[in-house]
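stuck on this chain:
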Amino acid sequence: MSPDFPAVRDLVAEILAVPADRVDLDTVLGTLGLDSLALVELLLAIESTFAVRLTDEDIDQDHQVGDVLAMITARRGVEG
């Protein structure tokens, strides 16, 4: 598992107001209540925390937490 998973899990849990233990790599963001406002908050938090920029075209309600983590890792390789 990626060393960044705990930070991604905690961001998702905080922004979507769910317990962190409900968030794993296979969790679909929409099942946790991701809406358009929460998506913007999540994108800003990812940019602030990981210094990578994702857009609302990269992430939506159907993505899993693992997808988000993979995008962060891939963007770090490109932007880093």
User: Anything to note?
Assistant: The longest helix spans residues 36-50. Helices lie at 5-16, 36-50, 65-79.
